[in-house]
TrEMBL record:
The chain crosses the membrane at residues 6-25, 37-59, 71-88, 109-130, 142-161, 173-194. InterPro entries: LeuE-type (IPR001123). It is a multi-pass membrane protein. The keyword Transmembrane helix applies. It comes from the Bacteria. This is LysE family translocator. It is found in: Cell membrane. Coiled coil: none annotated. Keywords: Amino-acid transport, Cell membrane, Membrane, Transmembrane, Transmembrane helix, Transport. The keyword Transcription regulation does not apply. It holds the Pfam family LysE.
Length: 196
């Protein structure tokens, strides 16, 4: 497995604006970073578990049927390319307004289970980066662990950003630029994984 494209993918999937990121940011903005950590960790553990479950179940099928893996790989690349375009062309996320209800650990975990972005991300990970071979399950578990570490670090950035949001993103232009950089990183990681 080529680790660098996967790590880039995990970073972009975790750092780009999405429901969990915005809720972590908003919760931190209203209640502080310390109060946000349980939800942050819970959401990351749930997303990593989805990666592990997807990889553990799909790995054997993908190894036995290379055509399925190829179709899934192309589907993952196309979906991620579409997502990168959506992110690139989207208006700035509204960071100053959002839910004023506390984002709990339970809510964060359930959000991952019902969030199509999380499942599509897990399927993209499996189709693009899941190793094949003798130690595939061990390697998928390692991928899930790397994803957990990266996602916690990324969501901690969003939590810290919640404390400084008004100073960091003073203009809509700044948020749009950030989103466009993340969109390009997502596109590069998808195609690098496909071509590796």
């Amino acid at each position: 497995m080529n680790v660098m494209p996967f790590l880039l993918f995990a970073f972009v999937a975790s750092i780009t604006p999405g429901p969990t990121n915005i809720l972590v940011l908003t919760n931190s903005q209203h209640y502080g970073v310390k109060a946000t950590i349980p939800a942050l960790v819970s959401g990351c553990v749930a997303a990593s578990a989805i990666v592990l479950i997807s990889g553990a179940g799909a790995g054997e099928v993908l190894r036995q049927y290379p055509l399925i893996r190829q179709v899934m790989s192309w589907g993952g690349v196309l979906w991620l390319s579409w997502m990168s375009w959506q992110l690139f062309s989207a208006p700035a996320a509204n960071l100053s307004h959002g839910s004023h209800h506390r984002f709990t650990a339970r809510a964060a975990a359930l959000l991952q289970v019902i969030n199509p972005k999380t499942w599509m991300m897990a399927l993209a990970v499996v189709s693009l980066f899941a190793p094949v071979g003798e130690h595939a399950l061990r390697d998928v578990a390692l991928m899930a662990l790397w994803f957990l570490i990266i996602s916690i670090a990324c969501l901690m950035c969003w939590a810290w950003l919640g404390k400084a949001v008004n100073r960091v993103f003073r203009t809509t232009v700044a948020m749009v630029r950030f989103q466009r950089v993340m969109a390009l990183c997502l596109l590069i990681s998808a195609w690098a994984g496909m071509l590796a």
